[in-house]
Amino acid sequence: MDVFNDTHRQIRDTVERFIARHVTPHIQDWEEAGQFPRELYQQAAQDGILGIGYPDTLGGCFEGDVLA
Hints:
3 helices, 50% helix, mainly alpha, globular
């Protein structure tokens, strides 16, 4: 039984693209520097990733506990 719907898959794809574009290329540099860039949070917010798990009334995209 597949518990994921089309919205779940769309969110998964968005997060995968975000990681590939904004995290993977820089992770080694961040690890060596011992710092995590604040700008990454801003980009995640722009891409709608920070709202995952929050209800629409708070600007999120809650799709059930499967994404929490």
